[in-house]
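hiii, so i know i said id send this last week but things got crazy w the move. better late than never?? heres the sequnce for the chain we talked about at the cafe, plus the structure i predicted for it. fair warning i was half asleep when i ran it
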Amino acid sequence: MKKYLLHVLIISLVFILTLLSPPLNAQQKTTVTRIIDGDIIQALYGGVEKRIRLIGIDAPESRIDRKALKDANMSEHDIETIVEMGAKAKAFVNGLIKRGDFITIEFDTQEMDRYGRLLCYVYLSNGKMLNEEIVKAGYANVKSIPPNVKYKDRLMEAYQEAEEDKRGLWDE
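okay and structure toks below
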């Protein structure tokens, strides 16, 4: 009888915890603390400042670093041009969100990357997805890395629209 009651208690506890825990891709409100780059911001998460890598996009680097040098070697642009394009991408993001703004973050399948950054889709206070807005304005490419591909098609449509209309970096 005691064994039966223990099993019932454990099953009940697991059921209650399952109901109380949010799904992995649940949306959470947070506050912006800094804009790092055209595809990385910083925000409060669990009371701690965390970097957030915007899922599905890749903006040029706004400073000379290893990735900027790699991008320069793999493209027709020199390092100065890439950094200049990165500064424009960062300025565009700064025009959409500022320190202290409230945003909503949504996780996909994987919550963090190997650098400890949160991997998120970010929504502005007007409900628009920041990731998509950056691509739609022509300040980032689409970079789809499985398993985080929930909005891949949506981002591709925004990219094609920006490229066709020669927006942002595609205007150069």
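btw The chain has one domain: 25-171. thought thatd interest u
miss u guys!!
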